[in-house]
Amino acid sequence: MTIQRISPKTGLILGALVLLAGFTLLNVRKLFTKEPIPQTVNALSVEAITVQPADSYTVSRVYTGEVAAGRTSELGFEQRGKLVEITVDRGNFVKKGQPLAQLDTSRLEVQRSQRVAQRDRALAQLAELQNGSRQEDIAAAQATVKNLEKQLELQRLRQQRREFLYTEGAISREDRDIITFGADALEEQLSVAKSQLEELQTGTRPEQIAAQQAVLQEISASIVDLDIAIKKNTIFAPFSGVIADRRLDEGTIVEAGQAVLRLIEQSQAEVEIGLPADVVADLRLGQSQSISIAGNYYNANVKAILPEVDPTTRTQTLVFRLNGVSNNTIVPEQLAEVEITRTIPTSGFLVPFTALVQGQQGLWAVYTLKKTDKSDNPNFFQVKRQEVELLHTEGEDAFVRGLVEAGDRIIKDGTQRLVPGQIVQFQKAGGEKKYQNIK
Q: What is the CATH number of the domain that holds 353?
């Protein structure tokens, strides 16, 4: 028999293979025989909390609005004119009815004086009509009638003589017609004088008095119209408040409706804040809320809920009345904030945010502690991954639901050091009571 020699290099390789095979068989044997983990294993120590189910969670959101003035008016004139006086400046407090600005009214004053003179004349004429005729006027009218009667009688005699002379051919036809025309004219004058005398004797007719009264009313109405026009050339404060802006100065030609002053009412302060419609549904008129303005907190009540939804922000405007606070304390258009806390009814668990493990496609998970039969140490556990749905986060906490069950121990933090199936040593976490007593 021939013995083949093995090189030293080949021997070393064969020896290594034999050792590797023996080591592998030993590990497989340990795996299938479930030998206990030696107590000296240096397992990673983790903190865990015990969770209990909850039937709701709270959501707090801060919404921003602004302080609103009770009333704000852009004050101007109803007609065009020259601005001659402004009696106030920015920041001045004014009372209701106080004059603030004045237009030139000289032309209107002249027109009013003319109308007053016309009214006085009409009043005198009306008084004359109402008092009736004076005796001296009647006597004068009677004398006029008698005088005309005598003149007419004399003229008729002359007319008869001229008619006789004309028939005899002693005078021309023209001479005869002159006398005839004079007689007719005197007869007409006598008729008018008799009518005037009759009017004086019978007194003024009611329709004449009524007509004069109508003239007087028309003149008086025009005076009232001028008084209104003059008054409208002055701006009066419609309510008490503070002058926020002075837009024009004296000497400016002001157009009708052009703003001259801006007046802001100083009444009990109000705040307007836009809230989502679902949040508004949980609020009621008169409900108390805390409003923050410039770092200060004020007690307020819901005064009004406006019915319309803003098409841009999709919010409803709520008006809050600040109790015991006026616009002297805060400034209109200041930013204001309100924090609304709502309870959302749903089942789940409150866990530390650091306990969450982010998965793929927006999914989340937590690591729980599972008892292992590979160790007799009661503090040794196996890491198990449980998928959950993240419903809400608030500060350092998160509200989740999923495969977690009541009483599960969830690893509080340090999840980046762990993998499912890893053996860890349990350590009770501080603040565990917070997650066991969820209401």
A: 2.40.420.20
344-358 tens-digit pLDDT: 899 999 999 999 998
Distance, CA of 350 to CA of 103 (rounded, Å): 71
0.90 surpassed by pTM: no
DSSP 254-321: EPTT-EEEEEEE-SEEEEEEEEEHHHHTT--TT-EEEEEETTEEEEEEEEEEEEEEPTTT-EEEEEEE
Q: Do 97 and 235 form a contact (C-beta atoms < 8 A)?
A: no
Give the chain's count of helices (H) and strands (E). 7, 21
Residues 114 and 217 placed together within one structural domain of the fold: yes
CATH number at residue 89: 2.40.50.100
* Digit-coded pLDDT (tens) for 2-59: 334 445 444 445 454 445 444 444 443 444 444 555 544 578 899 999 988 999 998 8
Range of the structural domain that residue 319 is part of: 61-71+267-343
Q: Which residues contact 269 (CB under 8 A, 6 or more apart)?
A: 67, 321, 322, 325, 326, 327, 329, 330
User: Scanning the structure block, which residue is given the tokens 């982010």?
Assistant: 358
- CATH number assigned to the domain comprising residue 283: 2.40.30.170
Number of domains in the chain: 4
Instruction: Give the pair of three-digit tokens for residue 22.
Output: 């023996």
pLDDT of 180: 80
One domain, residues 85 and 141: no
